């Protein structure tokens, strides 16, 4: 698997353009619904720029079974958590799932490089066989294919005592510990450890990776600064650099991992940009707008998306050269979602 630091900005742009165009060609030729959608917008296969590729709102997956893969090749239908209402249903074939795992492996290298015998993971969630088809739980469970992993939570409860025993066991083995889970579950673990006066001295031998957001527990959510402080105090961390968040959504086939400065990086096979919420025209880097992604790793469906997120896309040529994203908030009103609704109806 490639290393995040091996390409310059220019090399990443070349890779991105080539892979996204290949992905567009594939889905244009093999997905009649997407092809009709493109032609409706006067776009054929002869695009000049990847910015010419028609994107569609993620809400499409709430109302349509929209896929390029043949039914017999679909490994599973994955769903969103459904915390905001109707669930999305996304078809994935084996190659798309394998590439998703590749993105997790790639992203972990922003955290460090370990051999299998040097690290163990504790996942505050189910293994992939019990994650059913809920996307975030499945994504987080994939780490067990990279490193030995203990699973200490289910939908019903967190095994706090079991989690603490694993933390102490791995620490005594002199291996690096990686604790993974939704921020709310990590928050509950911290509260349990403080209430029961658990003295765990993690030093620089533990990393904490969160993902999935606070969702239905938003009312109890902490600011990033306060959350960082809680984790540093509870686990007695050496540095805030040991805390990383990840970004993914069910319609996207790639995970974005944070670097040591807590900046979320977009790998070169994904094109991230912001769009004007009213015109849906691309905005310049650094401008706040509607988040849009083109993900070349998906073969089972065309991942050319407009989301409900407002954010910023930046480029940097410093320590980790490449593209970063910052998600600010979700669209909140029906009026703001008007363009997306119209686009969704044209695909139906």
UniProtKB/TrEMBL annotation:
BP term (GO), one: bioluminescence
Name recorded for this polypeptide: LuxE, long-chain-fatty-acid ligase
Entry superkingdom: Bacteria
The keyword Nucleotide-binding appears for this protein: no
UniProt keyword annotations, A-Z: Ligase
Cross-referenced Gene3D superfamilies: N-terminal domain of ligase-like (3.40.50.12780)
Single annotated GO MF: long-chain fatty acid--protein ligase activity
Coiled coil region boundaries: none
Enzyme Commission code(s) on record: 6.2.1.19
InterPro entries in the cross-refs: ANL_N_sf, LuxE, LuxE_bac
Acyl-protein synthetase LuxE domain: residues covered: 2-347
Pfam families attached to this UniProt entry: LuxE
